[in-house]
Amino acid sequence: MSWEVLLQEYIKRPDFQIWLHAKTVEEELRKFVLSIVSNEIKILRNKILTSNESEALHIKTIKEAGITCTECETPNLLECPTSQFCKKTSGVCQKHGDVKSWCPKPCPLSLCDRFKRKLTRKHKFKSPCWENTDAKCWATSDFEVAKCFLPKTYVLKKSLSEVDTVGLLHICINCKAFRVWISGWDQLDNTATQVICY
């Protein structure tokens, strides 16, 4: 029996047909969730840039001039130790070096500090995944903002379109901006995050 005949027989099997339908539905769900996530993250990034706080005018001027911060590294903005970011070996933090002399460096434009504060507030558990993201890109990249709400297994992804359905659902669960989209969002806890991983 040739491989073509075996393949045709396999494709006709009911379990393969069910799998094929499930895969098609999953891809359509992914496209739908991707469009919502893309839109909400763009809105969130723009709100951070233009909200009514005292520094908003300064930030808006920076945005309109096309100026972005190129000095801040994500570790430079964070206290040491930062949960799920700092790793100490022999009393030395792998991200910050000698902890005794470490203190966060403020952003010269106040831009990155503002993003750090707002992203922390917008994270359901107040613990964005700083390891995933690059502070230099927060003002210009929706995806760098979205990566704060993803588990660190997505660190190598280059765009939102590369993120699978599970990753998109992580963003929806971890970002407070999605409360309006998910009924019972406030009751979701880490259990929901664990369930979508399996």
A few lines on this structure:
This protein is mostly helical.
Task: Describe the protein's architecture and organization.
- The protein is mainly alpha-helical and 198 residues long.
- The chain has a domain at 38-75 and 109-196.
- Helix content is 48%, strand content 3%.
- It is built from eight helices and three strands; from the N terminus they run ααααβββαααα.
- Strands 1-2-3 form a three-stranded antiparallel β-sheet, with no helix packed on it.
- The relative contact order is 0.13.
- Residues 191-195 have low confidence and may be disordered.
Number of strands: 3
Q: Specify the biggest β-sheet.
A: 3 strands, antiparallel
Share in β-strands: under 5%
Q: What average pLDDT do the residues reach?
A: 82
Q: Taking Cα atoms only, what radius of gyration do you get, to the nearest Å?
A: 21 Å
State the end-to-end distance.
38 Å
The residue ranges in which pLDDT falls below 50 over 5 or more consecutive positions are 191-195
Shape: elongated
Q: What is the number of helical segments per DSSP (H or I, 4+ residues)?
A: 8
Helix-strand topology string: HHHHEEEHHHH
Helix content: 40-55%
